[in-house]
Amino acid sequence: MRVQQGCWLILTWLLLMAGPLFAGEPLQVHVQAMEGPFKSGFVNALQAGSSDMRIAPSAERADLIIALGDDAFADSVRHDKPVLGVFVSRSLEQKLRRKGCHCAAIWAGVALNDQLAMLQLMMPVAVNVGVIIGNNSAWSEGGVKDYRGRLGLKLFKVDSHEELGRVLREELDALDALVLPVDETLFGPDSAKLVLLTSYRLRRPVFGPEQSYVHAGSAASLFASGGDLVSETLIQISSFIERRRFRRSGFVHTPSVIVNEHVANSFDMRFHDSEALRSALEVLP
Known about the structure:
The protein has helices at 2-23, 37-49, 70-76, 90-98, 112-122, 141-145, 161-171, 189-202, 211-216, 226-243, 261-266, 274-282, and strands spanning 27-32, 53-55, 64-68, 83-88, 103-107, 128-133, 152-157, 177-179, 206-207, 220-223, 256-259. The chain is α/β, with parallel strands linked by helices. It folds into two domains: 26-107 and 227-243, P-loop containing nucleotide triphosphate hydrolases (Rossmann fold, 3-Layer(aba) Sandwich), CATH 3.40.50; 112-221 and 255-282, Rossmann fold.
């Protein structure tokens, strides 16, 4: 009996010591994504940014899965492990959380208030600003309605490209500018021509949703660059290591910015290049 009691005491001590001992081991992280340059660059940047983690060769051998994009995020939750979605749609993350996944996400796009703050710097005289959203947009109807800044926002909810065209034709002329969220369904390459040609014809600038639109003719946009996503992911990893739980899901906190110089000049905006606008954004409260 004394021998058994002694064994139990030793076992109890070992269990108590296991936490501190294992806490010092690097977190095993598996990155789930389509193979390619973006994944390789992302993995390399993660490894360079944290000495507290190691890249696991498979999801089965990982403590944490990082999923890049919607497809990888939806597939990764089947492993029944903590999953961080990176650049994923807000609607998908909310759907998976309702199903009980142990997950969080860095949403695709940028916050509405951040994009509007940038718009105000570019167009200080703007008052009436339209916001078009769809079912899969990065911004929610409630988020737009909760805006309490000085701009007067007019919200348009659309479900199709046909309805998008109608709203642009009938409503854009009464606005000072239009700001768009990331939404691959509504504002993909097929609709860019429709949006930007209507903007050009009616002389009403478009802001957002991301850098490809700016290259095509949008005035300017904040966007989540690869570096921004890595930085935000490292913050989430650090939180997970310390507390074994994620920070709240959200957009990147310090997005990048891009300006279409030709469009900015044609509308005589306050800033005509990305560097000048970036410097102005950095001093905002």
